Amino acid sequence: MQFRHSQPALIGLLSLFLPLGSVYAANWSCGQDLNMNGDLGQPGETASCFESPSGGALCPISAVDCSSSQQMVCTNPVALNFDVKVARQFGSFTVGFDLKTGAVTSGPTGLVAQIPTLDFDSICTNNNPISATGSTTWDAPSLSGSNFLGTTLVNLVTAPSCANGLVGTIQITDNYTGGLPSQAGGQVSFSTTSETCALETQHACPLGNSYSCMENAAGQQQCSPNACVDLATQVPVVDDIDTGMYQDDGTTAADGTCLGQMMIFAGRAMRCDKAGVSTAFQNCCKNTGKVLADDTGDSGSPTQMITSVYDSITQGKSEYEAALAAGAPTMVAANAAATAAGDVMANYGVVVDPTAMVGAVIDYFTQSCDQTSTETGVLNGSGFCYEIGEYCREEWEFVGCVQKAKSYCCFNSKMGRIIHQQGRAQLNSVAGFGTPEAPNCRGLTPEEFQSIDFSKIDFSEYYGDLVPDTMTQIEGKISNGVTDFYNSNQ
Length: 490
What we know:
The protein is α+β, with helices and mostly antiparallel strands. It has helices at about 5-15, 120-125, 300-325, 330-345, 355-365, 370-380, 415-425, 445-450, 460-465, 470-490; strands spanning about 1-5, 25-30, 45-50, 55-60, 65, 65-90, 95-100, 105, 110-115, 130-135, 150-160, 165-175, 185-205, 215, 220-225, 230, 235-240, 270-275, 290-295, 350, 385-395, 400-410.
């Protein structure tokens, strides 16, 4: 049976294990199986994710510091066109120029030049190419005369580039041989791309480029191998076993004879939660000790008896709190709790160990264990249950199992459990107790019950509950208990 977990309760539970003063992303959680045992049931294996000021949610589990470095980052590219112009009075010449400084680096005296100053990072951070788009003669206004048509040649010897540091060389060849005043000069046009650049701090995750660095609660840049899951949209799947059992509600004749299928010593599928997110990481499967001891092995309805365990503990809790509120010492309050709980169980032919019951009552209201886990703990500690196995009761998508549980078949007496545990092995019609996810705790049919060879059933485990009776009395009570239960269901 699957259902969705209550989110407010889950988030509230996780908040108990998180440091104060930090901002955690609402509903975002994460987890990691740190001890590699197949589930995330230990403290520290699940956590709420931190809402980073830089954006995103950071899982604090196994988070590591990111390395940092300064890097030029350029954006907003725009086209850039510019000219390099050089000239002198008479004669051929060669000019070297530097676009980073906007200056002539080599050439004869008497030069006139217009060299633009360019920002190297804006062009070369992303290695934008520089292309020469054309050349022509240039008449420098400060020089006398002009370039005579067809006599001045302009040649780009070295093109500026990011690779050579934005330097270039232009050669001007003057072929004029007349006697008029003249100058030799030319210009070369270029085009490139310029960007807006700034020095930024870059962070790198040592776990790999697929993990993002984010600012943590202390202002440090960290990354985590564990993804954060939004439990509001990716709701945890809770797979709970069916704890229903056969009820005494079949059709009966006028004299009370059962007309339907009769089940003898019917059990109930039950479970207890191991340490996990649902239990505030407390083990609700721990043995509470032998709280109950049955006398003849069965009395009353199995459903009523098993359910009454929780009622008895609840009643004991109420008596304990009332006694303390009235000013009674702790020991007196504990005795009142045990007496109240024992009175409830006495209605079902069950003897209660006062000391163990006090422990069960205290465990009940000091731990985050639900009703089913509480009932199972008492019944199993008293020997009324057969353990089937473990299964995952709650799983988070992309995280894993965050709550495991143990499943049992619990009966209303230790005798019932012994008969089932050993008797089923003699029957071909009952194949064990099912699986941890789907326990088979049905009772025995009359035909199956009659097929059991009780001489092969070892009741020695049961004898301790019947001391100080003699062995003859013990054997008689076992025989009478089985016979009475069978006869009462005819």
